[in-house]
Amino acid sequence: MRVIAVVACCFSIAGCGIAAKVESRNEYQESTARYKACLTDNPSAAKNCEGLRLAMETDERKYNNLSAGINPGSQSTANVTILNR
User: Fold this and answer.
1) Residue range 73-85: average pLDDT?
2) Beta strand ranges found along the chain (DSSP E)
3) Alpha-carbon distances of 24 from 32, 61, 81, rounded to whole Å
4) b/e for 70-80, b at 16 or more Cβ within 10 A?
5) 40-66 b/e with 16+ CB inside 10 Å = b?
6) Is the Cβ–Cβ distance between 62 and 28 less than 8 Å?
7) For 55-82, what is the mean pLDDT?
8) Nearest to 22, CA basis, from 49, 62, 57
9) CA 20, CA 23: separation in Å to the nearest integer?
C-alpha cells in the first residue's frame, strides 16, 4: 500500500514539471509571435520591438531551463560571473 502512495506522489510531482514546461513553451511561442508581428509592422524600425525581443529571449531561457530540468543532459543555460584578480 505504501508503494502505491509513493508512486502516486512521484507521478503528481512529475506532472507539475510537465505542466510548467508546457506553460513556458506556450509563453515563449506567444512572445515570439508578438515580436514577429511587431517586426512585420515596423520593417524599418526594429528598435520599436526591442522590448518584445527581450521578453521573447527571457521566455526562451525560461523554457530551455525547464526543459533541461525535465530532460537531464539536454541544453541548459547558466549565469557565470568572472572576477578579475
Assistant:
1) 55
2) none
3) 12, 10, 26
4) eeeeeeeeeee
5) eeeeeeeeebeebbebbeebbebbbeb
6) yes
7) 71
8) 62
9) 5
Who contacts 28 (Cβ-Cβ below 8 Å, separation ≥6)?
A: 56, 59, 60, 62, 63
Terminus-to-terminus CA distance in the chain, angstroms?
59
- Spatial distance between the Cα atoms of 41 and 35, rounded to a whole number of angstroms: 10
Q: In this predicted structure, what is the pLDDT of residue 49?
A: 94
Amino acid, single-letter form, for residue 71:
N
- Region of 73 please: left (phi>0), alpha (psi -120 to 50) or beta: left
